[in-house]
Amino acid sequence: MRSYERPIIVSSKCIEFEPCRYNGLMISSDVVANLKKYADFIPVCPEVAIGLGVPRDPVRIVDDGGQNHLYQPKTGECFTSEMEQFSEQFLNGLNEIDGFILKNRSPSCGIKNVKRYHGFNNPGSMRDSVGFFAEKVKSHFPNQPVEDEGRLRNISIREDFFTKIFTLADFRRVKNQGSFQDLLDFHSRNKFLLLAFNQENMRRMGRLLSSSSDLLEDIKNNYCELLLHSLSENSKTTSNSNVLMHSLGYFSAKLTQPEKAFFLENLEKYRGGRIPLMVMSSLIKSWIIRFGSEYLEKQTFFNPYPDELMQVSFIYDKMG
Ligand code: SF4
Looking at the domain assignment, is residue 2 inside a domain? Predict the structure, then answer.
């Protein structure tokens, strides 16, 4: 049974931590609520941190002559420099972060589709902007997984996000305390997972480990860069399907024709977005238990995050 390191996640404080929204409310999120048991959170509310109270008059992003401002229409005040200053200071003070969960559509925390008004007194807006704090997060941590609580209701996005944060947490332990052998073991157990995210990088990482005569610290840093780069994009259905087909090959001779047909039928459903990856992984895992395969058993691809986070209710709200 795999044990999991606890990811360190920065989260918007109004999601499941404190009722600090402009209207004094809190946002509920099953994802964050369930993740609390398995991850360590650093909750932050940038608007409260710059001195705006709770409740408060809402702020918005206003584009004035090509320059974005964080504007409070009721008071006519701008909090742009305060927000930029706080964000820089807060993010510079963070050390090793495995991911961010931010509040969607907020002019401070929203990672995409945030309303941007055209002029201080113009009611016209477009949902094409990024919150001030979120923008700084992206520039300080360009390759770390960043999601909002709305997108995490989608099962594919959530599967990817969980996979990334638990992989990065596992690597953080190896990077900070591990020997060269620990690094080799990390690479070995993550081979299928890395293959699914970025095949070319997976090979580069393998070459780095097999041919490098550099200092361990340098190898770890280079490996870390490649890992972050690999996880900076979402896994693709085709790559996951290739890994699943590759896994089928390990058991092909032992399976009956109807069993193989059943697998391929479900693989088509996965490709069509009708079932999540976890269903296909469970199918392979049942064969690992039945026929035994030490190599596949240790592959994180089949157990990328704690089983308890694979909530059935989550499946319905994303597939439906
Ligand atoms: S979205 Fe961000 S700034 Fe707004 S209440 Fe939540 S944590 Fe605070």
Answer: no
